[in-house]
C-alpha cells in the first residue's frame, strides 16, 4: 500500500480504512462508518487494534506512538489519528 499524500479529506481516509478493515479483518465496508465503535460494532479486540495500528503506519508512512492510539475507540477517532500523523 502506498503512503497517503496530502491533502486528504475524511472521506479519503474512510475509504482507505474500509479497504484495510475488509482486507485485514473481513469486515464488510458498509459497516465501517465514522460512528462505528471498533471494539463493539466491528468486533475488533486488542490484538486487532495492534494490527490496525501497523496498517495505519504503512498507510501513512509514519510511526504511531502507542499513547496516541490508546484513546482511539471509533472509526472517527482513527480518521482523526491519521490526520494527526500526517500533519506531524
Number of spatially distinct domains? 1
Total strands: 0
Give the second-level CATH assignment, the architecture: Orthogonal Bundle
Based on Cα principal axes, name the global outline: globular
Q: What percentage of residues falls in helices of 4 or more residues?
A: 40-55%
Order of helices and strands: HHHH
The residue-averaged pLDDT reads: 88
Helix tally equals 4
- Write down the CATH class: Mainly Alpha
- Beta-strand content estimate: under 5%
**Name of the CATH homologous superfamily:** ACP-like
CATH topology: Non-ribosomal Peptide Synthetase Peptidyl Carrier Protein, Chain A
The helix-and-strand class reads: mainly alpha
Largest sheet: none
- Terminal CA distance: 20 Å
Provide the low-confidence segments as ranges. Answer: none
How would you characterize this protein structure?
- This protein is mainly alpha-helical.
- It has a single domain, classed as ACP-like (Non-ribosomal Peptide Synthetase Peptidyl Carrier Protein, Chain A, Orthogonal Bundle), CATH 1.10.1200.10.
- 55% of the residues lie in helices and 0% in strands.
- The chain is built from 4 helices and no strands.
- Helix 1 packs across helix 2 and helix 1 packs across helix 4.
- The longest helix is centred in the first third of the chain and has 16 residues.
- It is globular and about 30 Å long.
- The two termini are 20 Å apart.
- The model has no long low-confidence stretch (mean pLDDT 88).
